[in-house]
Design brief:
The N and C termini lie far apart (about 45 Å). The protein is of the alpha/beta class. The chain is built from eight helices and twelve strands. It folds into two domains: about 140 residues, Aldolase class I (TIM Barrel); about 210 residues, Aldolase class I (TIM Barrel).
């Protein structure tokens, strides 16, 4: 974000032409950075902020996508911040719906995935165009810095926004007080354990570790769940839920026998209790539970958490205490012979 010329004069200006989507600033070496990323086994993602000048974006779309293909980018995050140009059109009107579809179909020609922000809520379109890998289209974690999301927000989204397709929510905030800031704009209304759970309860095959590296370095044991959790799934089980209050979801990692479970609650503390009867009978799994600490509270002690590990089967019963606006995350990895010898049974 901010790699290409035009950012010093884009916001709130309602200008038809701001970006050409191919001209980097002099200090941004596209080819060097791509080569360096490739050495590290990293794929870079392009960012196209349109400044809501959609006509200008469409004029440049072929050139911009070809630039991506030439430089090894196969995914783009697009943005539409501002009042739509041409005048009289709006983010959720028919003209813009046509544009979003045009951008996705054009991207498919170049074998490019699209993650659109400020776009209309999807309606299952990713089944036809699987290169539509994600959308924002609701209040994501970013909104915490503007006016804050209520604790119940993420318990409601699976029954509203997420019905239409994957959401780029950007979870994984460990420094929920954002220690280097002050005031209302520095509080994320969640516990650390709830942030882990969102990787399961909020479906997206494009995920993000949205905090600073320093925040993860302070909690490497909790960060392990983000390293382990899958990105896409073969199966999903909704174990318990009340829209706007709580939800617990179990998902089977694509192409494996491993499962991940996430549970979250609203501003009320609660106990989640369920049986692992979705696991394959006769097999053993290493369960690692990341749960709120006994003194956890999203306002008073958001970073209190506890981790428990043990061998489980499809008959094992799990109970987890969720703090106010808290949660839990559970990884269930098929046990190896050495695991069965070295790890105790779940109690």
């Amino acid at each position: 974000e901010g790699w290409n010329e035009g950012w010093e004069d884009w916001f709130g200006k309602s200008k038809d032409y701001v970006f050409d989507f191919v001209t980097p600033y002099p200090d941004f070496d596209v080819k060097m950075l791509n080569a360096y990323a490739k050495e590290k086994g990293v794929k870079l993602m392009m960012h196209h902020e349109t400044s809501a000048s959609v006509r200008n974006y469409e004029r440049h779309l072929d050139t911009a996508y070809q630039f991506m293909a030439d430089n090894g980018y196969n995914a783009v995050k697009s943005g539409y911040v501002g009042n739509i140009i041409p005048r009289g059109e709006h983010h959720y009107g028919q003209w813009m719906n046509n544009h979003y579809l045009y951008a996705v179909t054009k991207a498919a020609d170049y074998k490019i995935c699209v993650n659109a922000h400020e776009a209309v809520r999807p309606t299952g379109l990713c089944r036809t165009y699987p290169n539509l890998i994600g959308n924002e289209s609701a209040r994501g974690t970013e909104y915490e810095a503007f006016a804050g999301n209520k604790p119940f927000h993420t318990t409601l989204l699976p029954f509203t926004r997420l019905i239409g397709g994957p959401m780029d929510y950007t979870p994984g905030i460990f420094d929920t007080r954002i220690s280097f800031l002050e005031g209302d704009h520095s509080v994320v209304r969640t516990t650390l354990a709830k942030q882990l759970a969102l990787y399961v309860t909020m479906y997206s095959p494009l995920q993000m570790a949205a905090d600073l590296p320093e925040s993860y370095e302070r909690h490497p044991d909790a960060f392990q769940f983000i390293k382990d959790v899958a990105l896409d799934w073969d199966d999903s089980k909704y174990l318990e839920a009340e829209p706007g209050d709580y939800i617990t979801v179990a998902r089977k990692a694509k192409g494996t026998n491993n499962w991940f479970v996430g549970g979250i609650t609203d501003e009320n503390a609660r106990t989640a209790a369920f049986t692992l009867n979705f696991l394959e009978p006769g097999k053993q799994y290493v369960a690692t539970l990341y749960a709120d600490g006994k003194d956890a509270d999203y306002e008073k002690n958001p970073t209190s958490y506890q981790i428990k590990k043990g061998i489980v089967t499809n008959k094992t019963k799990i109970s987890a205490q969720l703090a106010r606006s808290g949660g839990f995350a559970l990884s269930l990895i098929e046990a190896s012979p050495s695991d069965r010898k070295s790890i105790k049974k779940w109690k």
